[in-house]
């Protein structure tokens, strides 16, 4: 097998999976998914080499797991034991930025911050900010990544216009194009987005870029009357058409952890730090309009029960938004044993938080919450060192979310961490369809078999 | 078979396909697709009756074509000969409008204008305006309908959050939910959108609603220097972040036809009527901002070569936008033999128009053009009574669009009209995948076999 892979990508780009130098590549950032033991790690340089790797692996009856930057939180890039781990690290070129059509064509290994900076040179932005800007484009397509700005711009799915991808049988497919819209057969672009390397390996991505919005205002509103008031405020803000670019919920302990991890002092009165916080950023083309909207926002928040409305100075605002983006690292540093990425209807966020905390209490688990409130996407940090109690807590939390009309993942994906939750809690008919689709595209189970829909 | 269908939906809701009373239901509005000869037409009342019809048809080896309002332009709702034509006309209830989550839950037979009016009572709007507001929600999901407002809001795909649907084997599946985002397995919602009744029959739709924007300004800019200048202006308008709610191109003859059909006199100087026209509407929450943006827009258009920039009074603006929405009827009344719905990169619109007209000239066909310029979605009217010359013109036009990076349909769908163009011009690898997906979901070919991916 080594020789077949060396023929595919060059011997200098194949390393045995048990080589200590590749140990860091054998897992992503998912807390509950142990590192895999791949047989080999390979670094193809282009589409043809990806095809050759897939063909070699399939011929040998070995599976392939794709890896971008390894920043995923569900274990989708964690290889199955014995698999070929295919890193896209060498396929990291921005092929084109077209400011007229406002699109970029990139290889899957390009990092989000690299693309965003390159777009910025044309007055444009790629607004998918999933919290880790070193994430790769390919990885974010695989997970349909979201993040704080999805409340305004939508998730990855809303930005990908076309793909080039390699199927399990080595066929190269091209979907979509530099096209703002398309209705020409089933949308294969959309089918591949979020499929976590199980239907095809993406080798090129065409994304939509957006005009950069230079004006910005950020307010922080602590609520002392419970998360219900936060949920109601979010509905009003979105419903008024204020189109926030960030609309985040943080409970008191998460706010403490986030600020501590970022060494950030906001100067809140101590009795308000433990409140339920709503962090809202407005962005626009013109300063005076954003200022006017910020006043409307502050009035709305006050009328709906905010204990205070703090107009954050630009520097503090930027640091707090960045710190919130890094909340995963903050709660990880604080010892969280698992994180949850459930999504519920926007209006059900407070109810879900309440039920999740009750589940935690029943199992002696500590449950902290924050989330993309404008999207109903709740991130919980669960502290419970006992594996059985942790599993019971998670099961109860997932069941509570589904009972409220939710889904197991809003933006992190299913990966290996949530495959059994999805299988247990998803719609049986829909899951059966997805399994049939998977079998139709990858009948031999070559692509990331331990991941996603099983 | 009659009895089986009568058992499914009640005898009073089954009519033989050759009954004169159902003749109008045997085709949609596609110009080049002849009416089908269904064996029966049925009107189920609910999901269970849809399941029963599908099961009865499959058991008898008869196919099923779904029909919404019959306003489609690709023949997707035209039944195959001998099929059961399943009308969703009785499943026309709005089940819920939830202003807090800004979602609506509707049956597939609900008309767009009915939903939009109901949303309006809550200060909300459903912004999919494909040009025919009597279109049904189910039909617009089936075709992934777009329309003039897609340049701001996106096409149907961007608004559908969840579906209930009946598969070919009678299974009921539920996808998505009242969820702003989701990443929980392959996105079955997105796979079913645009599948034109070939993968499943949609029995319930959850859509996202948007805040109504009360302020509006509309300008009309004739360009006498060719369509290139229009294309350049569109790029600048979108790139500046003006976020137009309408951004339409009309060539001179189409403008004449549209105004004549609507009995609309704009008072343009005669020498400007035959220019290339750009019609741009801005919408927003506040009048003064929209006015300010309209000035910026007018300055941009003048600087980029518009011969004049007319600020349309509200009444004329509304009538012209409505008349443009009805352009299909105008060119049909003028004797058009076929219409084309190609999409190309936004910057390639003028090049495509030029090539399409050259193809027309080569075959003695008259080719008029208009389109959703902000999306690169070009609608051509082709006048050519000779079938062979018409087919040659269409073939050349489709090939020209594909060569520019386009796709055979931007928003009308493939249906029966474009199935052979897609099969000939689509990416072979991608088409093979879509055929495998279709076979996996409908192995017996029960659902609309003559339509879409074949």
UniProtKB/TrEMBL annotation, chains A, B:
Q: What are the transmembrane regions?
A: none
Keywords tagged on the record: FAD, Flavoprotein, Oxidoreductase
FAD-binding PCMH-type domain: which residues?
34-212
Record's Pfam families?
Answer: FAD-oxidase_C, FAD_binding_4
Domain of life, per UniProt, equals Bacteria
Its needed co-factors are: FAD
The residues forming a coiled coil are none
**What name has this protein been given in UniProt?**
FAD-binding oxidoreductase
């Amino acid at each position: 097998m080594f020789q077949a892979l060396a023929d595919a990508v060059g011997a200098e780009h194949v390393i045995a999976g048990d080589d200590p130098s590749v140990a860091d590549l054998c897992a992503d950032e998912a807390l509950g998914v142990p590192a895999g033991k791949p047989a080999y790690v390979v670094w193809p340089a282009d589409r043809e080499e990806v095809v050759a790797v897939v063909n070699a692996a399939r011929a040998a009856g070995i599976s392939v797991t794709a890896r971008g930057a390894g920043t995923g939180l569900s274990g989708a890039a964690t290889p199955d034991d014995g698999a070929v781990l295919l890193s896209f690290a060498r396929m990291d070129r921005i092929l084109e930025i077209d400011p007229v059509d406002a699109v970029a064509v990139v290889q899957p290994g390009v990092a989000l911050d690299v693309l965003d900076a390159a777009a910025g040179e044309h007055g444009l932005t790629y607004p998918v900010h999933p919290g880790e800007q070193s994430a790769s484009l390919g990885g974010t397509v695989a997970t349909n990544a979201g993040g704080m700005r999805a409340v305004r711009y939508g998730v990855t799915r809303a930005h990908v216009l076309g793909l080039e991808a390699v199927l399990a049988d080595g066929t190269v497919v091209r979907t979509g194009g530099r096209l703002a819209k398309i209705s020409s057969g089933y949308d294969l672009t959309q089918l591949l987005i979020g499929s976590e390397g199980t239907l095809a390996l993406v080798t090129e991505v065409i994304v939509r870029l957006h005009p950069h919005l230079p004006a910005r205002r950020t307010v922080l509103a602590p609520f002392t009357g419970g998360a219900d008031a936060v949920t109601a405020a979010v509905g009003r803000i979105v419903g008024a058409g204020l189109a926030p670019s960030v609309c985040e919920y943080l409970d008191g302990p998460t706010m403490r952890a986030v600020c501590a991890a970022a060494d950030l002092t906001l100067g809140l009165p101590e009795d308000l730090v433990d409140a339920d916080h709503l962090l809202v950023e407005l962005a626009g083309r013109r300063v005076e309009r954003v200022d006017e909207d910020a006043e409307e926002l502050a009035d709305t928040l006050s009328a709906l029960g905010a204990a205070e409305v703090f107009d954050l100075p630009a520097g503090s605002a930027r640091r707090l938004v960045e710190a919130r983006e890094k909340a995963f690292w903050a709660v990880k540093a604080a010892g969280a044993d698992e994180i949850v990425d459930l999504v519920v209807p926007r209006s059900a966020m407070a109810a879900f938080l309440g039920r999740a905390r009750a589940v935690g209490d029943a199992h002696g688990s500590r449950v902290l919450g924050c989330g993309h409130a404008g999207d109903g996407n709740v991130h919980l940090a669960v502290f419970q060192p006992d594996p059985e109690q942790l599993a019971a807590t998670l099961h109860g939390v997932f069941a509570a979310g589904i009972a409220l009309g939710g889904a197991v993942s809003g933006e992190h994906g299913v990966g290996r961490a949530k495959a059994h939750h999805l299988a247990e809690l998803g719609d049986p008919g829909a899951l059966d369809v997805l399994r049939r689709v998977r079998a139709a595209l990858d009948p031999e189970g070559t692509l990331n078999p331990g991941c996603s829909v099983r």
